[in-house]
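User: C-alpha cells in, sequence out, please.
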C-alpha cells in the first residue's frame, strides 16, 4: 500500500498480513514497505500493523508531520524505516521485529515515548546525518539498544534498557561519513552484556545513571 503526495489527517490504518512468506526486499516499483508514505504531509495518524513480511513494515520517505500512535507486532524484517523525513512520533510500541525496530536516516525526528521489545538487531538505529530527540524510552530483549552512527546527533531524555547485547553503540560505519554523538540525560542499562561501544571518531555522554 502506497500513499504518494497529498495530505493525510487523523487516519487510522490497520494492516494484518496473512501470507508470512518473505517478500522480495524491493519490488518492481522500488518500494520496500508493506505500507509506504512518499512525499506526504501527515497529521495525527494512527498505525496498527501485524505480521509484515516486507523489508519494512512501514516506510516514510520525504514525508513530514505527526504520527500519533504506532503499534507494530511480528515484523519479518524492519518495523519502522524513515528516510529524508521530518517526523514527530508521539508513541511507538513495537514487539518482535526480526531486524531493526526503528531505523531513522537522513532526517529530523522526534519521539515522545517508545516501548521496543524483541528487536532482532537494533531497537533504534540512527544514521546518515540524522538529528533525533527522544523524551522517554524502554528497550528490552534486543541485540543493541541504541545505535547512532555516521554524522548523526541524538539526544535522549530518559532511556531504560534491559537484557541486550549492547546498550549503546556510537560509531562510524560508512566511509563517506564520520563519527556520531549520543547524549543522554537519564539512563539505565540493566542485565545486559555490555554497556557501550564507542569508536574513536564518536562520543557518548551520559549525565545521570538511573
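Assistant: Sequence out:
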Amino acid at each position: 500500500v502506497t500513499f504518494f503526495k497529498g495530505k493525510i489527517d487523523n487516519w487510522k490504518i490497520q494492516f494484518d498480513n496473512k501470507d508470512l512468506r518473505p517478500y522480495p526486499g524491493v519490488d518492481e516499483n522500488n518500494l520496500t514497505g508493506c505500507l509506504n508514505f512518499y512525499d506526504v504531509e501527515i497529521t495525527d495518524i494512527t498505525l496498527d500493523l501485524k505480521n509484515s513480511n516486507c523489508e519494512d513494515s512501514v516506510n516514510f520517505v520525504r514525508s513530514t508531520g505527526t504520527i500519533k500512535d504506532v503499534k507494530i507486532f511480528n515484523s519479518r524484517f524492519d518495523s519502522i524505516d524513515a528516510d529524508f523525513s521530518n517526523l514527530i512520533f508521539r508513541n511507538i510500541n513495537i514487539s518482535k521485529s526480526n531486524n531493526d525496530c526503528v531505523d531513522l536516516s537522513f532526517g529530523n525526528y522526534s519521539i515522545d515515548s517508545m516501548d521496543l521489545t524483541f528487536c532482532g538487531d537494533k531497537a533504534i538505529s540512527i544514521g546518515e546525518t540524522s538529528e533525533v530527540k527522544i523524551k522517554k524510552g524502554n528497550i528490552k530483549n534486543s541485540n543493541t539498544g541504541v545505535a547512532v552512527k555516521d554524522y548523526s546527533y541524538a539526544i535522549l531524555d530518559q532511556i531504560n534498557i534491559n537484557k541486550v547485547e549492547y546498550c549503546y553503540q556510537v560509531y562510524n560505519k560508512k566511509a563517506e561519513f564520520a563519527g556520531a554523538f549520543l547524549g543522554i540525560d537519564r539512563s539505565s542499562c540493566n542485565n545486559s552484556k555490555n554497556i557501550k561501544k564507542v569508536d574513536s571518531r564518536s562520543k557518548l555522554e551520559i549525565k545521570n545513571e538511573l
